[in-house]
Amino acid sequence: MATDFPARFREAVGSGATLVEAPGTSESELAFARSVTAGLSDDPKWLHCRFLYDAEGSRLFEEITQQPEYYPTRTEAAILAEYSVAIREITGPRTLVELGSGYSVKTEHLLAAYSESAERVLYVPVDVSDTALREASKAIAESFADVQVTGINGTYGSALPVLRQLSPQMVIFLGSTIGNFNEAETTAFWRNVAGHLPAGDFFLLGVDLEKDVDVLEAAYNDAAGVTARFTKNYFARINRELGANIDLDAIEHVAMWSPERRRMEILARFHMAQTIYIRAPRPGLRDKGRGGDSARDQSQVPATGAQGGAFRFRLRCEANLHGSEGLVRAHPARAARRRRHPALSPAFP
Ligand SMILES: C[S@@+](CC[C@H](N)C(=O)[O-])C[C@H]1O[C@@H](n2cnc3c(N)ncnc32)[C@H](O)[C@@H]1O
After folding, report:
1. Hey, which residues does 129 pair with through a beta bridge?
2. I need a surface site. Which of 130, 155, 278, 320 has the fewest CB within 10 A?
3. Model-level pTM?
4. CATH at residue 329
């Protein structure tokens, strides 16, 4: 079996496999621990959006899209229903690659249009959520006999190296998911896409427009509280996967329009200070650098969890998570802040 990812992916497409794992995906627990450690040790605190989407997070996001206040999904679906054929006429037949595809529900309009004019369409959804990918490929197989789905379970960055072999293609990025990035990440994202997408290929971006603040804020503060559960699930995931002790009842979901950044920002407000312990992410790994597998309190040096490829740590984070300064941003903080934690600097998302 080929070891480099583009070759492994080529083999998966050739054999009709429905799912292939990108490099680093099995290490996601370690990446999660590193990301949480870096974000909660920073000031102001932040968390990477990518980790919102475990199985429960993906399910909750799908529920959000069905809330009456959440107009973006309905609106984007209506646009795609109306214009998918026109889009296909512009691009001609090609492979469809979708970044952050989730359950691929809206994409079905594009798949219908593209499969009308080609014998066979290759669809490559890319997502960190393997549950969403599996459900999507099952639903597409049931609805479209002419569409081959070979999904990539991994991050955008890990999947982009396969783009060269998929030309002619259209890369799709819907749902205003670009808003999950901060400015530095947005620039890095476009550079990375530009570096991998051959000339003549297409990129279809779905983003919301600025509008009445009440409409925007209502969409992310639904009356049924699903978005609030989605935010809290991040902290529940930290508890579940990293053995933390965060009091979920102390967290308030806050979604507000930022006039400076001209975007919606989602935050978690803590109503009381908490000390958060995060334990070693993978039992059995030894901290070679420190000789032994006993958990260490690294509150003094939170950035040094990784030692020679092995990892075991316990972080005591005196998190000042209360009041307006204690908001934990679901958007990453400035890149400059992260330079203080080089060992934990997350790779491109
Ligand atoms: C806002 S949802 C959008 C889902 C769908 N495209 C839509 O428009 O309804 C973002 C999706 O991107 C995925 N995602 C988030 N960060 C990611 C990353 N860094 N790499 C790959 N997928 C990611 C999530 O799992 C989720 O399915």
Report:
1. none
2. 320
3. 0.85
4. 3.40.50.150
